Structures are given as C-alpha cells and as structure tokens.
Amino acid sequence: MSKLAIVLAWAIAVVVAAALGSIAQTWINMNAIEALGTDVGLGQRISATLHDLKMFTPLYAGLVAAAFLVAWIVAGLLSRWQPVWRSLWFTLAGFLSIWTMLAVMGQALPVTAIAAARTTGGMLVLSLAGALGGWLYARLTREL
Known about the structure:
Strand content: under 5%
Number of strands: 0
Order of helices and strands: HHHHH
C-alpha cells in the first residue's frame, strides 16, 4: 500500500471522526439547553449543527488528527504482533485516543474546552466517533 493511500485513509478517518464528534457535540449542547427549560426546535438544531460543522469541526479535526497520529503508531505495532486483531486495535486506538485527548484537555485547561466532554456520556459519544474513525482507517488500509 502506498504512503499516499495511508495518508489519505488517515485524513478520511480524521474527517469522519471530527464531523461525527462535532455533530454529537452540537446535539449534546442543544439537549443541555433544553434541560434548562428552553425549547430548541429541529430547525435550530440543524442550523447549529451546520454552523458547528463549519466553525468547530476544523479545530476539532486538528486535535483528532494529532490524537490519531499517536494512536495509529501504537495500533500499528500491536497489529504486527497480532495481525488478526488489526481492526480491533485501530478501533480501540481511535476510541482511547479521543478519550485520552479529552481527559488531558480537561486536566490541562482551566475550563472544559469541549462542552460535550463535561460528562462521561459526552466523552463516551465523542470517543465512539473516534472508534468509528479507527475502524474506518483499518478497513481502508487493509491489505487485499
């Protein structure tokens, strides 16, 4: 597999994980606003989702890209040790890299920079988007 194909697969995984994470972040925030007693209609949710895809996703994608770079090294090494579990390694790497990134940000910054990461449920949803990105990368880069 060419290096270009590997980089392209990594970029696709980053975009998918970041876009799904952004959408989840928006809807978690909209649910929090509704919990305060404010009605949030579907139109407002869609508008906020599109806004966040444009404004939040690029920044979040940079964070995801960095997290995936480190995680893919570890998953790649584990895949050499147990190649049968390659998809599992990259899926776990995607999940754990996002979880770790959010946890480190939560400890390093005075406020939670990503509102959805304020709860375990939010961190879980964002990390699941990372897991999907890891699984997708493994599928795109599998040897045929």
